[in-house]
Amino acid sequence: MGDYPEHTVPAGQYLMIGDNRDNSEDGRRWGFVPEANLVGSARRVWLNFDWNRDPKITWGRFGQRIE
Questions:
Q1: Torsion sign, CA atoms 37, 42, 45, 51
Q2: How many C-beta atoms surround the C-beta of residue 45 within 10 A?
Q3: Which end of the chain offers a freer environment for a tag, N or C, measured as fewer CB atoms within 10 Å?
Q4: DSSP letters along 2-67, please?
Q5: What are the backbone angles phi and psi of residue 27, rounded to the nearest 5°?
Q6: Given this model, what pLDDT does residue 57 score?
Q7: Widest CA span of the chain, in angstroms?
Q8: Residues of the chain with pLDDT under 70
Q9: Tens digits of residue pLDDT in 40-50
Q10: Phi, psi of 34 (to 5 degrees)
Q11: pLDDT (0 to 100) of residue 23
Q12: Distances from the Cα of 59 to the Cα of 9, 34, 55, angstroms
């Protein structure tokens, strides 16, 4: 997906960013999400994965609380 210019997120909107940096189909491609469309919240880490590390998955973060 490459480099993106700096943007200002409008009030009442959110920019959803994928966790795969340049390979994510996320808000950098499809735009902002209105606050009214948000439901729930993140409470725990489900998966922490990094292609540049060995091992690729950080199992110690699985289920960890997000504060």
A1: positive
A2: 14
A3: C
A4: -------PPTTEE----TTGGG--SHHHH--EEGGG--S---B----B-TTSSSSB-GGGTTPBP-
A5: -60, -20
A6: 87
A7: 40
A8: 1-2, 4, 19-24
A9: 888 998 888 88
A10: -65, 140
A11: 66
A12: 33, 33, 9
Tell me the residue type at 27. G
Nearest to 61 by CA among 43, 44, 42: 44
- Cα–Cα distance between 27 and 14 in angstroms, integer? 9
Residue 35's pLDDT is what? 94
Supply 50's token pair. 């990094």
Helix or strand holding residue 28 (H, E): helix 27-30
Number of Cβ within a 10 Å radius of residue 67:
4
CA distance 15 to 66: 19
Share of the chain above pLDDT 70, in %: 87
